[in-house]
Amino acid sequence: MLQPQEFWTPDTLKTTIKTLDYSAIAWVVHQKITALLPTFQQELKASHGTEELLNKTYSYDDNVQIQFFFNVVNFAYWAPQGVEKWAFSGTGEDGSYGLYHAFEQQKAHLDSWDATRMANLTIHEFDTLLGTDLSIPMREERLSMLQSAGKDLLRCTSSGRASELIEQADHSATRLVQILCEEFSSYQDLSTWQGNDHLPFMKRAQLFIKVVNDAGILAGKDPLQHLDALTAFSDYKVPQVLFDLGLIQYAPSLRAQLDSWTELNKNSDEEVAIRMVTIEAVEAIRTALSKIGIETNAAEIDSILWRLGTKKKEGSAPSLYHRTRTSAY
Known about the structure:
Blueprint lengths: L9 H9 L7 E3 L4 H14 L13 H13 L22 H10 L10 H5 L3 H8 L8 H18 L6 H6 L4 H11 L6 E4 L3 E4 L2 H16 L18 H8 L3 E3 L1 H8 L9 H23 L6 H13 L19
Antiparallel strand pairs: 1-4, 2-3
Helix pairs in contact: 2-13, 3-10, 9-10, 11-14
């Protein structure tokens, strides 16, 4: 185990962020939140969670299984300037939608994402799954992470099915985060601030839990417990949306780096500050909604921001998101 059991919790992340000062790099524009509350109210009413990444024809168990392996490699789809992005040739979609549908179309071939099959996945099988001549970023690392996840799932369960992990966690979202990050190296996501403070962002682990909860609701199950403890899923898309909405701002030097397509190093002050301000901004939105009588959680707000980021507005182009080559997000 990488850290003691109590380390891998969203509360650890939120508590640590509150003690750190990164305001010279990135900050929340609190006065902008009130004006956008009607937008969040409207989106919450129309929200369907993460159903875009669920197959309604699948059993609950199969939805959990595909989401477990999909989220192992659900990261870093961006391409350098002038390089064409990977897209799934079966649908023409790029990013997470493209990869999800690539996984979806391999259901029969991969025996419903059987853990033993995934533990022994070959590079040829992985390339067949990707379905394109364009190589996805970090191709070999993604394959290795899928193999590792398959082996760890076989080690941690008697069935090789990810739904068993939910039972082990007693249907608790926070305990499931701990299990994923302690037992599965493929799900660990740990950053450091200026070489000292440890920040367990756990982006993909928390996203998996959110989608699993939505799959359960779709199947008529009760929601997971302790969902309110989850944080935003801090990646490169959500801060881009927050910035475009005017809810966060960056120091001029950081903005210049983003505008020039400069890659940020993993664990650089700039990269970690962006991830922290994302958590802070979503918590601020959640607090503002609560003050007007609307109770929700960070995971729902994150889903709304992500969906807003996929909606193209005529006559406007989104800002450039930050680019860090990492398997964390």
